[in-house]
Amino acid sequence: MYNFLFYFLIEVFGIFFMILSFSVIIVYLLIMILSALEMRDFLKKNKFADYQDIITSPIAPGVSILAPAFNEASNIVQNAKSLMSLHYGRFEVIIINDGSKDETLQKLIDAFELKKTDYAFEPEIETQAIRGIYKSPNKSYRRLIVVDKENGGKADALNAGINISQMELLACIDVDCILSSDSITRMVRPFMEETNKKVIAVGGAIGIANNCDVKDGTVTKYRAPESSLGRFQVVEYCRAFLMGRMAWSRINGLMLISGAFGFFKRDLVMAVGGYFPKTVGEDMELVVRMRRYMEEKKIPYKVSFIPDPLCWTEVPEDEDILSRQRNRWMRGTIETLQLHRKIGFNTRFGILGTISYPFWSIFEKFAPILELVGLLYTLVLVLIGDFSALYFMALLLMVFLLSMLVSSFSVLYEQIAFNNYKDKKDLKRLIWLILLEPFIIHPKVVLWGLRGHIDFIIGKGGWGKMIRTGFKTAEDRKNINSQSNTV
């Protein structure tokens, strides 16, 4: 009896993994097709676009840029200057000092002649205590507002900024990111274009600035990162933004806008209660909650995505730091899916419930678990002598070729649309990484995802410490190289 049950389960698992394997292939081929169609339409539509019209348009929405800061004293002044110099007509920059223990606040006060003011605002969203609001009497800095508050985390800091903001749109960014000078004009355009549906949020692509030259808050020369982990993230970001999110945008199924660079309708963010501070995936959770609200109210809406590289960030190239980041991403995904499990497989919520939620549950949340179970299943087959090497190698080769195809097309999209990596050496490095990624990096990503599941189960929270080396100018890089040669 037990013997029969054991072999019955073996057969069931075999059929399950066969269906899963072919499902993965079909899903990612569909994603490639949808993203290609969306990229084609985007490039065609923007070929003759004049964004200067948006800057001068009297109907262009105002934008409140919210930038939480915690212990950012080394770069905060330069970052604030960069944000205030963006090309747009009506915007304000709100920097929220989230209880920094260094000189972040004092450096801002000294650099911009800030004075503590009795700033009138209505705290509609509950946050940690506000210690003071600062503005400058110098008209050159009229756009800048600095909020000093007790530490409460990124989501709490953003909520404090939302309470104080005055504009129609919220631009939520990481303060250490670099924004293109025309980033606001490009991101507000979808809000102005759509007539049949209400655009509730717009996400932007994130570029990787590691090993690139940065001057006056702009990336002047692109290079692929020196480390394999850095190059892996270049390929990964191309897959995520230029392929994945373009495809989801095509069918209005986006569930995630990067917390480093996203625009939202302020009235809707206020209506849903702002960011949820008790999750480490506050960016994804807010988008899902906004979409859920619109579905329940039966209001036609859209979440858009702009593939232009308008925001650059420094990614971790240390394995320990990267593992903590991926652990946090997994925990954030699990928390969001559990908080909104009501929408899962529910036709009442349209594409969100019937396509987006199931995809994130199977291909994102459970992906590392399914890979581990698949490995254990293969080992069991080997032990009982029911292992087909030919079948296994054929399936492995098929999955490997699919991985190469998806990654290669992602980099190809980047080259066709933006052509940032002009040096052939960089492209060769990225291609080599694509070939090696499934063997040297992907197993680690699976392990980090599994640890995220374990930490979620045992209740381990927090962001984990993220250490950045800072952006480099061409002169900085030259000095570093000369010092290395001298040593």
Short description:
The chain has 487 residues and is α/β, with parallel strands linked by helices. 55% of the residues lie in helices and 15% in strands.
What does this structure look like?
By secondary structure, the chain is α/β, with parallel strands linked by helices. It has one domain. Helices cover 55% and strands 15% of the residues. It is built from 16 helices and twelve strands. It has a ten-stranded mixed sheet, sandwiched between helices. A two-stranded antiparallel sheet has the order 9-10. A hairpin with an 8-residue loop joins strand 4 and strand 5. Helix 1 packs across helix 7, helix 7 packs across helix 13 and helix 13 runs antiparallel to helix 14. The longest helix has 45 residues. The radius of gyration is 24 Å and the shape is globular. The C terminus is likely disordered.
What's the arrangement of secondary structure elements?
Elements: H1 2-46, H2 52-56, E1 63-69, H3 76-84, E2 91-98, H4 104-112, E3 115-117, E4 130-135, E5 144-149, H5 154-164, E6 169-173, E7 178-179, H6 183-193, E8 198-208, E9 213-215, E10 218-221, H7 228-250, E11 261-265, H8 266-271, H9 282-297, E12 301-313, H10 319-339, H11 350-365, H12 367-384, H13 389-417, H14 424-440, H15 442-458, H16 474-486
Parallel strand pairs: 1-2, 1-6, 2-5, 8-12
Antiparallel strand pairs: 3-4, 4-5, 6-11, 7-12, 8-11, 9-10
Helix pairs in contact: 1-7, 1-13, 7-13, 7-14, 9-10, 10-11, 10-15, 12-15, 13-14
